[in-house]
Amino acid sequence: MPICVAATAMQRMAHPEGETATVRATKSHALRMKNFDTEELAFSSKQGYGEDSGLAVYVSQAIDASITWEDIEWLRGLTSLPIVAKGILRADDAKEAVKRGVSGILVSNHGARQLDGAPATIDVLQEIVAAVEGKVEVYLDGGVRKGTDILKALALGAKAVFVGRPVLWGLAYQGEDGVKEVLNILKEEFKLAMAL
């Protein structure tokens, strides 16, 4: 199924089990989740790992906020793991990201929270897919609410979509079971859209 669960912060504000409930729900649907490794998350939730460690302060001081294209090349030199650039909304940026060595592009406007004037991701998807000329996979994040949204994204060239807010709504409604229900609805709507 071409659905992934997007990284969303503070899931415990929606439900006491937070990310743990979401991971369990995604595993039951055999979907991917873009947050933590599931084993690491399961271990940390049992152990209270990292609580009050001050790690957030250390990390925020250790990372330079002025990210440049050279950082992709630097990261590529450190790992053979896939690097996916998130937040690409323009064809020229997509081309540059490919030139710098990314393995994929996640077309995202970050939920339109950072810049309220950012374009809808579905509106720029086709031009970004064309710009990368099949050299890397392209994913879509943002605005996916129905199965027809998934179908449209795939028709415009996305390999898969990432879903964030609907998962949080399901989590707030009924925890793990709520997330399962949201994912089930999306899957069934997508199947129906494909059949039509």
UniProtKB/TrEMBL annotation:
The keyword Transmembrane does not apply. Keywords: Flavoprotein, FMN, Oxidoreductase. It comes from the Eukaryota. One of its GO terms (molecular function) is (S)-2-hydroxy-acid oxidase activity. Residues 1-196 form the FMN hydroxy acid dehydrogenase domain. PANTHER family: 2-HYDROXYACID OXIDASE 1, S -2-HYDROXY-ACID OXIDASE-RELATED. This is FMN hydroxy acid dehydrogenase domain-containing protein. Signal peptide: none annotated. One of its GO terms (cellular component) is peroxisome. Its cofactor is FMN. It catalyses: 2-hydroxyoctanoate + O2 = 2-oxooctanoate + H2O2; a (2S)-2-hydroxycarboxylate + O2 = a 2-oxocarboxylate + H2O2. Pfam families: FMN_dh (PF01070). Belongs to the FMN-dependent alpha-hydroxy acid dehydrogenase family.
